[in-house]
Give the backbone structure.
Amino acid sequence: MPEKEPQEIMLRGIGGSPGICIGKAYLVDKEGVDVMPKYSVSGKQLEAEKKRFKAAVKKAVDELHHIINDTPEELRENAKILETHAVLLKDKMLYGRTIETIEQEQINAEWALRKVVMSIKPLFEGMGDAYLRDRAEDVANVSDRIFKHLTGAGCVDIGSINKRVILVARDLSPAETSQIQLERVMGFVTDSGGRASHTSIIARSLEIPAVLGLDRATSIIQNDDIIVVDGTSGTVVVNPSEETLAEAETRKSQFEARRALYARSGHLPAKTKDGLEMAVMGNIELPEEVVAVRDRGGDGIGLYRTEFQYLARSSFPTEDELFENYKDVVEVIPDKPVTIRTLDINGDKAVAYTAEQEENPVLGLRAIRYCLKKPNVFLTQLRAILRAAHYGQVRILLPLISQIEEIIETKKLLAQAARSLKKDGLPHQDRIPVGVMIEVPSAAIMADAIAKEVDFFSIGTNDLIQYTMAIDRGNRNVAYLYNPITPAVLRLIKHITEAAQHNHIPVFMCGEMAGESIYAPILVGMGVNELSTNPQAIPVVKNAIRMLNVEQARKFVDELLKLTTTDQIERLMDSTYGSLLNNGNHMKWER
């Protein structure tokens, strides 16, 4: 009997990096590390066990430094991720606590490390910000590296792959991803991970397709299986039919042609057909990413997340350390705005400087709440921001504002920072534009009053959707509710933009909605003045804006706001703008 054709299987995950690739799967051998049985150590054995742990950490640090030195030129801007891993290996919360656990509980290093990791990871995983939530992966990656040296297990060598493949793995650490050779690896898929993970960030910088968070890809996909990876829609097709392959080849060619077109036109202004010009800026986490924003035609930095400098440390960064990083960004684009968001983490958790715990950190002491509870920490950052503002056009952005009192208190601290800098004789700007993130329903409802206290709004759609719909967007059971075009969310955005317009302040958007060009007609029609997105999406969003007419977009929004279900809204969007934005000009949007 003829051999039966393998059945086509569709897997859905998270689009980590856009694009389409077709090829053979290469399963990365990552079975994990079996932790040795727990056993007691005492006396001289105790000192020997601590030395064994320290030796494993040193090998891991040396290994990372070797990888950093061998990192390809195209990944140099992401080397800081690996440097942070090297620092995390010796950090108090991992290194120090493990040694303490060996001493106090008199147990072997593997079990002590396992216990510490199990206590640290939930602190990150419980955080509201996706970028910070995915830092739990950093803890897992560095601890796995130590485990391997404790147990003598081998490490994955991505750099030794000598054929053209698509990587399939349970997870890929930033160190492993940094070893990718573009002439060999077309893309990758992983069981774990999210869009804000460092692995995803590196994939976008390499501009190779990636789909993450597939849960069971490694158990379904076999070595040498033909797979189609669509990093735009977050799908993977295993054993595609001839028809599916032909369609994927066509979409791949169209995507690559569009990307080339957008790259050539990225530096053109985002001006609508009837003459309205919008700024399209970039979101960055690392100072090095400002180069990608500039090179792709970004009109500035709409969101500079400052949390990275506070992570994987045993103490808070100094004012000078913060200042130098902010200044580095500002000096690359001194003639364009740089919007620096103040510390947006639950400091007691994410930086592990104290042992305090909260039952629900997502709704707890985080972001502006934490900063106002720790005025000395906040003042250090405010002084650094004002000093950096001396070298360019800096704006300050306050996260998770839920009431006006938080703005008033922050402005007092900002004035205090300016006075202290003047007294110290340090170059700085006394006054810079102050804006707030509108990402909590209470702030959206009070937008008319808040607008009188600030210079601009920045809508953070990621949290605004999450809090408005009362969902955890990382929870697959309720992920279907996470949609920027639900009627409630659209009405809130409209309320926010009207409040800004009535008070003559601009309104920006820096959430993921801003980077999806299918939503451009809605945002233009609602009167959003500036969009900020990941650097790779800048040319795409600019192109979409150039295809619009403002008056038509306003009429479209008027009709949209009359609708009461998401399905109705999607149908109207598709019938009005679907052919314009999807017919060879835009990466097809997916729910």
About this structure: Residues 30-35, 583-591 have pLDDT under 50 and may be disordered.
